[in-house]
Amino acid sequence: MKKTANNTNGSHFSMQKIYMKNSSFKSPNSSKIFTKDWKPETSLDLNISHSDVDKGLFEVVLSVAITASNEGMPAFEVEVDQAAIFQIEGFPEQHLLEALGAACPSVMFPYLRETIDHLLIKGGYPPLMIAPINFDALYADTQRKSA
After folding, report:
1. Given a cut of 80, is residue 121 above it in pLDDT?
2. Sheet-wide strand order for 57-70
3. What CATH number was assigned to the domain covering residues 22-50+59-83+93-146?
């Protein structure tokens, strides 16, 4: 079943497919980390990219890299590229760019967060439960800085 958003001016926005494009999980010191109290220090790096697939179809990739250390010892590194194909038609260029940079990542983020938590649980760690991200504000800030 396709999620669809149409309005009277012929514009269309829908996610056609969501998938994991790449993932990596490393836990170099797990045997030592699991014997210590868990009080991690984490860092998160987020990137959004997009490309044309076909007329009106775009691939959006939401990439995240998270590292954690515990008591100064590296605990884990997790990297995920969550991708999706969106059909977006009938929008002016500025609105198209805003959809690709803010609306699409907002739709994709819960899937990314679930994937990261699943990898961490499989690696023996508690879920990270990344806080929600305001992609509209992030997009606006990026536009302001590039102007």
Report:
1. yes
2. 5-6, 12-26, 73-89, 57-70, 40-54
3. 3.10.420.10
